[in-house]
Design a protein that fits this description.
Number of helices: 1
Strand order of the largest sheet: 4-3-2-1-5
Radius of gyration: 14 Å
Number of domains: 1
Order of helices and strands: EEEEHE
Length: 87
């Protein structure tokens, strides 16, 4: 049995704008040296992450985080979650 630990990366999320009427949450996300802006249109199930550099690494885990905690997220709030990957 290998004693190697799986790689982990802590992802930090800041909510900058939220509108339940318009069905959107916007914010910033960063992990290691990457930073992105995101717009989540939750009524349409659409998540936009920019810039494209590294987007494939973060889009799916960020989407799962937003879906799980959407009602607990507030503008100005800082949140974090851990993914089992090295970014």
């Amino acid at each position: 049995m290998s004693s190697k630990r799986r790689p982990e990366t802590t992802v930090y999320v800041r909510i900058t704008h939220q509108s339940w009427q318009q069905g959107k949450i916007e914010g910033e996300v960063r992990a290691n040296n990457y930073e992105w802006q995101f717009k989540w249109r939750f009524r349409q199930g659409k998540l936009i992450v920019e810039p494209s550099l590294g987007r494939a690494l973060i889009q799916e885990p960020l989407g799962r985080f937003l879906e799980r905690f959407d009602y607990q997220l507030e503008p100005g709030g800082d949140y974090s979650f851990t993914i089992r990957a090295q970014i």
